[in-house]
C-alpha cells in the first residue's frame, strides 16, 4: 500500500485539489491586482496604463513610510512583548491545579473568538479620556499627570491600538504554548532536576528548544497577523486623527477605497505581499531550521 | 512524471482562464462616456418585452442606512408601500452605511443595482463611466419634475443624475445650546467669535465641556465647521471655493483653520474630540454633559423632543462682512439622492422605483417637520417652536452657500479635507500646516474638470 501512496504521482494527485483551490483563490486574485496596480484606476473604471508611476508615488508618499513605521511598531510589540508574555503565562498555567487550568484554558480563548468590533469598542471605552477606565485608575492612584488622550495623542495612539489588538490574542497564544509544553516528555525535566538544574535552566535548555516548532508557528502568525492589522484601526480611530494611526493595510484601504485611487491602492497591496513574503522567508531561513532531539 | 506535470499545468491554466472570464466585467464599455439615452431606451424596450413573459420584474435597490432616519424611511415608508405603486415588481433590498464601497464592488463585477442612493463623494466616477442615468428626459415626460419647488437644485452639469426630496437644501449647521447651563453660569449668547471664545473659557473653568461635535474621521470640520469659520469672517470666500475661484492659500481660510485650533487649545471641544463619534457627540449634549452642540438641523426634531432647555444661536461673527441673519450654509448636492443604473434591464420600472423612493423620503421628512422641495400635496404639520425659529431664520437669509465639501471637492480632496480637518481639532496641528498640506490636494482637485 505504502508503495503506491509514496510515489510522486500519488502525491501530486492528492495535492492537486488543494493546489487548485490555492491557485484559484490566492494566486489568481494577485494577477488582476498586479495589472490594476499599473493603471490609473478609480475603483470604477481605468483611464489607462501608467507603468510604475503608482509604485513611485507610493514610495514617495510620506504616509507609506509612516504606516510602515506604525506596522513595525505593532509587529515588534507582538514579537517582543506578547509572545514572551504568552509563554510566561503558559508556564504559569502549567504549574496550576487541573481546575484552575481548565478555567484559564477556556477563558483564554474568549477574547480571540469575540468580534473585533466588540473588542475595539471596549478598548475605546477604556481609553476614553474623561471617564475611561485607564485614566480613571490613573487619577485614582494619584497619577493624574500620566493621563492622556490615548487615541488622539500622536505619541500614544499606535501603542494604544496595538495593545488592544495584541490583548485579544495573548490567551490564544498562551494556549498554543501550553499545548506545546504538554508534548514535552516529563522525563527530560526529571533527568535535569537530578542533574541539579533549576526551573530557569530547565526552561532555557529544555522547554524553549523543544518548543521551537510552536515558537516558529506563533512567530509567523503573529508577525503576519500584526502586519495585516486593519479592523482595530478602523473601529477605534479610522486611522486618525490625520492618518497618524494608519497601518500599511489601513493605508492600502484608505488609498483604494477612501480616496478612490484604486491603482495606487493595488500598488500598496503588491508591496505588502512582497513585504510579507520577505518576512516569512526570513523567519523560515533563520528560525528553527533543524529538528532538536534529546 | 513530466507528463503528469504537463497535464497539471494545462489544467491549472484552464482553471485560470475560466476564472478570469467568470470574474470579468459583464459590461462591455464601462470606460466610455455617457451613453445615448435613446439607444438605452430602445434596448430597454427590447428587454422589457422579453421580461414580460418571465413573471415579476426584479429590481435591486441599494439604499443608505447610515442613520435612524434612513432606516425608518426604508422600514416604515418604502417597504410597506412599494407594492401599492409597483405591484408587478419584486425588489431585492440592500442597506449599507457605506454605499460608495458597495458600489465599487458592484461596479467591478459590472452588475450595478437598478436603483441606489447616490452620494456626491462617489457619483462622479460612476457618471463618467456612463452608468448613472440622466433622469431629466424621463422626469419631464412623466411630469415628475414639476413636483419640485426648487428645480435648479437637481441639476449637475445640466443633467439630473439623482433625485432627493429636497430636504437637504433646508438643512444647515447650528450651534445648539442648553439654556439652563448658560443661565446657571451667567452666560449670554455670544454674537462675536471673541465672545464665543470667552464663553468656552468660562465653561471650561466651570468644569463643563463647552462644545460637543463629532470629530472622528473629520466629520464636523469636513462638513461644516471649517466652512462656517470661513463664513463668519468672509462669506464670499466660501462661495469662491464652491465656484473654484480661490484656493486654500487664501488668508481667510488660514484664519478659519486657526479659529478651530484656538478652540481646540482652550479645550472647547473636550478631551479626545478628534476621535469623538457622531452618536457619542450627540449623547454628550443630550445628557447635559456638554453645553453646546454643533450639528446640522436634521437632528433638530429629535433634540427638541429630548432636550427640554434646548435653543440654538447663530454663528458668531468674526468680521462685519458676515451678517448671521442673512448668511447660511446649506447641505445637499445634486448628486445626492436616488439614482438609476443606465443599463438596467428594467429601466422604466427602475425610474419609477427611484421616483417612488424619493416621494417616500419627502413624506418622512415632512412628517418630522422638515422643509422639503418636493410637493407631496399634503398640508405641512405645525412646527414646534425651535423648528419654527429655524425655518424662519432660514427663509429670511439672502445668501445661501452650498456645502463646499459636497459641491466642490472630488473624492480624494473631500477625504483629505476631513482627514486634515480632524487634525485641527487636536490643537497640535497648525493652521499653516493645514493650508500647506491641503492646498496641494486642492490644486489636484478634479471636481471642476
General description of the model:
The complex is a heterodimer of chains A (about 290) and B (about 450). A two-stranded antiparallel ribbon of chain A has the order 1-2. Chain A has a single domain, classed as Orthogonal Bundle (MetI-like fold), CATH 1.10.3720.10. Chain A contains 14 helices and two strands; from the N terminus they run ααββαααααααααααα. Chain A has about 290 residues and is mainly alpha-helical. Chain A is flat and about 75 Å long. The model of chain A has no long low-confidence stretch (mean pLDDT about 90). Chain B contains 18 helices and ten strands. In chain B, β1 (about 55-65), α3 and β2 (about 90-95) form a beta-alpha-beta unit. Chain B is globular. At the A-B interface, α2 and α13 of A face α1, α4, α5 and α17 of B.
Structure keywords:
heterodimer; A: about 290 residues; mainly alpha; MetI-like fold; B: about 450 residues; alpha/beta; D-Maltodextrin-Binding Protein, domain 2; four-stranded mixed beta sheet; about 50% helix; about 10% strand
CATH class of chain A: Mainly Alpha
- Which word captures the global form of chain A? flat
Tally of DSSP helical segments of chain A:
14
Question: Radius of gyration of chain B from the CA trace?
Answer: 25 Å
- Going across the biggest sheet of chain B, name each strand in turn: 2-1-3-9
According to CATH, the homologous superfamily of the largest domain in chain B is Periplasmic binding protein-like II
Uncertain regions spanning at least 5 consecutive residues of chain A: none
- What is the H/E string of chain B? HHEHEHEHHEHHEHHHHEHEEEHHEHHH
Overall, the morphology of chain B is globular
Number of DSSP strand runs of chain A: 2
CATH architecture of the largest domain in chain B: 3-Layer(aba) Sandwich
Amino acid at each position: 500500500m505504502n508503495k503506491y501512496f509514496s510515489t510522486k504521482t500519488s502525491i501530486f494527485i492528492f495535492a492537486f485539489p488543494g493546489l487548485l483551490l490555492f491557485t484559484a483563490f490566492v494566486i489568481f486574485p494577485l494577477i488582476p491586482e498586479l495589472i490594476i496596480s499599473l493603471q490609473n484606476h478609480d475603483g470604477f473604471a481605468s483611464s489607462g496604463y501608467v507603468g510604475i508611476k503608482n509604485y513611485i508615488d507610493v514610495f514617495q508618499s510620506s504616509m507609506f513610510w509612516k504606516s510602515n513605521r506604525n506596522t513595525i511598531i505593532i509587529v515588534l510589540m507582538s514579537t517582543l512583548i506578547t509572545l514572551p508574555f504568552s509563554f510566561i503565562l503558559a508556564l504559569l498555567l502549567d504549574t496550576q491545579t487541573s481546575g484552575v487550568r481548565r478555567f484559564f484554558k477556556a477563558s483564554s480563548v474568549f477574547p480571540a473568538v469575540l468580534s473585533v468590533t466588540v473588542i475595539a469598542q471596549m478598548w475605546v471605552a477604556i481609553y476614553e479620556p474623561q471617564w475611561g477606565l485607564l485614566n480613571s485608575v490613573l487619577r485614582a492612584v494619584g497619577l493624574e499627570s500620566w493621563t492622556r488622550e490615548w487615541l488622539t495623542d500622536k505619541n500614544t495612539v499606535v501603542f494604544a491600538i496595538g495593545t488592544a489588538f495584541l490583548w485579544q490574542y495573548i490567551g490564544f497564544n498562551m494556549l498554543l504554548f501550553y499545548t506545546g509544553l504538554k508534548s514535552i516528555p516529563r522525563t527530560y525535566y526529571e533527568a535535569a532536576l537530578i542533574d541539579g538544574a533549576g526551573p530557569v535552566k530547565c526552561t532555557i535548555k529544555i522547554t524553549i528548544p523543544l518548543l521551537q516548532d510552536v515558537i516558529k508557528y506563533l512567530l509567523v502568525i503573529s508577525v503576519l497577523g500584526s502586519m495585516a492589522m486593519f479592523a482595530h484601526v478602523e473601529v477605534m480611530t479610522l486611522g486618525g486623527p490625520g492618518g497618524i494611526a494608519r497601518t500599511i493595510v489601513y493605508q492600502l484601504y484608505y488609498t483604494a477605497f477612501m480616496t478612490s485611487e484604486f491603482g495606487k491602492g493595488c500598488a500598496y497591496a503588491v508591496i505588502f505581499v512582497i513585504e510579507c513574503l520577505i518576512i516569512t522567508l526570513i523567519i523560515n531561513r533563520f528560525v528553527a531550521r533543524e529538528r532538536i532531539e534529546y | 512524471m513530466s507528463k503528469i506535470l504537463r497535464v497539471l499545468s494545462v489544467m491549472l491554466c484552464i482553471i485560470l482562464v475560466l476564472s478570469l472570464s467568470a470574474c470579468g466585467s459583464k459590461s462591455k464599455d464601462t470606460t466610455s462616456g455617457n451613453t445615448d439615452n435613446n439607444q438605452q431606451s430602445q434596448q430597454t424596450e427590447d428587454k422589457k418585452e422579453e421580461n414580460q413573459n418571465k413573471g415579476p420584474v426584479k429590481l435591486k435597490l441599494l439604499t443608505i442606512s447610515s442613520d435612524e432616519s434612513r432606516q425608518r424611511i426604508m422600514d416604515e415608508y418604502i417597504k410597506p408601500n412599494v407594492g401599492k405603486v409597483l405591484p408587478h415588481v419584486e425588489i431585492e433590498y440592500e442597506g449599507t452605511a457605506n454605499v460608495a464601497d458597495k458600489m465599487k464592488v458592484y461596479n467591478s463585477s459590472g452588475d450595478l443595482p437598478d436603483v441606489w442612493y447616490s452620494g456626491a463623494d462617489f457619483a462622479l466616477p460612476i457618471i463618467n463611466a456612463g452608468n448613472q442615468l440622466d433622469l431629466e428626459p424621463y422626469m419631464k415626460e412623466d411630469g415628475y419634475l414639476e413636483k419640485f419647488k426648487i428645480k435648479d437644485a437637481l441639476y449637475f452639469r445640466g443633467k439630473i443624475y439623482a433625485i432627493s426630496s429636497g430636504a437637504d437644501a433646508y438643512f444647515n449647521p447650528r450651534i445648539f445650546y442648553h439654556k439652563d447651563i448658560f443661565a446657571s453660569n451667567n452666560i449670554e449668547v455670544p454674537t462675536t467669535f471673541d465672545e464665543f471664545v470667552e464663553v468656552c473659557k468660562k465653561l471650561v473653568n466651570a468644569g463643563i465641556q463647552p462644545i460637543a461635535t463629532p470629530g472622528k474621521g473629520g466629520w464636523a470640520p469636513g462638513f461644516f465647521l471649517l466652512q462656517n469659520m470661513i463664513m463668519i469672517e468672509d462669506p464670499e470666500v466660501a462661495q469662491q471655493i464652491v465656484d473654484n475661484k480661490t484656493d486654500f492659500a487664501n488668508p481667510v481660510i488660514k484664519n478659519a483653520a486657526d479659529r478651530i485650533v484656538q478652540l481646540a487649545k482652550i479645550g472647547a471641544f473636550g478631551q479626545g474630540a478628534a476621535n469623538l463619534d457622531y452618536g457619542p457627540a450627540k449623547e454628550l449634549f443630550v445628557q447635559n454633559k456638554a453645553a453646546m452642540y454643533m450639528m446640522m438641523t436634521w437632528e433638530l426634531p429629535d433634540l427638541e423632543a429630548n432636550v427640554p432647555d434646548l435653543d440654538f444661536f447663530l454663528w458668531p461673527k468674526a468680521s462685519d462682512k458676515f451678517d448671521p441673519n442673512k448668511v447660511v450654509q446649506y447641505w445637499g448636492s445634486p448628486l445626492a439622492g436616488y439614482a438609476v443604473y443606465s443599463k438596467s434591464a428594467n429601466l422604466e420600472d427602475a425610474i419609477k422605483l427611484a421616483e417612488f423612493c424619493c416621494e417616500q423620503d419627502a413624506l418622512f421628512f415632512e412628517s418630522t417637520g422638515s422643509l422639503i422641495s418636493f410637493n407631496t400635496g399634503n398640508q405641512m404639520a405645525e412646527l414646534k417652536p425651535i423648528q419654527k425659529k429655524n425655518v424662519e431664520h432660514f427663509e429670511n437669509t439672502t445668501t445661501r452657500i452650498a456645502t463646499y465639501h459636497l459641491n466642490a471637492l472630488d473624492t480624494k480632496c473631500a477625504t483629505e479635507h476631513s482627514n486634515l480637518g480632524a487634525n485641527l481639532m487636536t490643537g497640535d496641528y497648525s493652521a499653516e500646516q493645514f493650508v500647506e498640506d491641503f492646498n496641494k490636494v486642492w490644486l489636484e482637485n478634479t471636481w471642476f474638470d
